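User: Some background: our group keeps a shared notebook of sequences we're curious about, and every so often someone picks one and asks for a predicted structure to add to the entry. Today it's my turn. The entry only has the sequence so far, pasted here. Could you supply the structure so I can complete it?
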Amino acid sequence: MNLKRRQFLFLSSLSAIGTGFFGWMLVRQNHQSAEITDSTTAIAANSAKKDLLLRFVSVADTGTGAKGQYAVAGAMNAYHKQNPYDLVVLAGDNIYNNGEIEKIGEVFERPYQALLKLGVKFQACLGNHDIRTANGDQQVKYAGFNMKGRYYTFKRNQVQFFALDTNSNADWKNQLSWLQKELSLSKAPWKVVFGHHPIYSSGQYGSNPDFIKTFAPLFQKYGVQLYINGHEHSYERTRAIDGTTYLICGAGAGNRPVGRSEWTEYSTSDLSFASYEVYKDRIEVSAIATDKRIFDKGIIQLKSA
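Assistant: Of course. Here's the predicted structure to add to the notebook entry:
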């Protein structure tokens, strides 16, 4: 082999080595760049969560002890593992069919055993089925429902909750006076009211004109951003109506068809529960089905028209 050929082969091999080395460096740099981008995204996400004031979930019309309730409870357990919460708003019809407290193990303690063991607190109100036995008094006294009365208020961080008895035999005169007083005294930036019956609804029972006349002006006057209820065995989220979002989460064990109205943002009959992440300026709502997918997301602003 002559000198020129040896020089050519040598230089060619150097070129191949160089190309391979620089190619490896380029891949490594791209990989490191991707890792940095992923880390930056993760840091940004964690930073956003640091601003989280409260995460809670809501569900209603649960108390069957049947397959549907366990399916929703399973989704609530799975969600808790990824997004821990320690509060469940339980919006009535806690014990079917007649509110019999002796069924509490079957329709509450066993289905939600995993969450209860983790210290998750359920805050309940009375539904129409709950008052069929002793007018619901046994449920009011049951420690696991954390009810301070047939209507009551409690605070979590910067959120004040107001639980109502929306049944036809409620002590309406005193309850409405109490609600107006408590709302007027509240210094909480976030105000959440919950009861069993709907105010706005596209479901079987529809909207309640009397409730709209009674509650909507109060909610607007005192800045209630969210009303949560059940009774309709479906999920429905409205747009903000005079500053208040109305959310039905009554597909906690069974379901019925639901339609849409001009103020509906999303509605479905899927078995589900709702999650709420409260920040200083907004609440991020997520609706989660039994297959653990989030099928609706919405934003509730601290102040909206």
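Suggested note for the entry: Residues 1 and 7 are 10 Å apart (CA to CA). Residues 3-47 have pLDDT under 50 and may be disordered.
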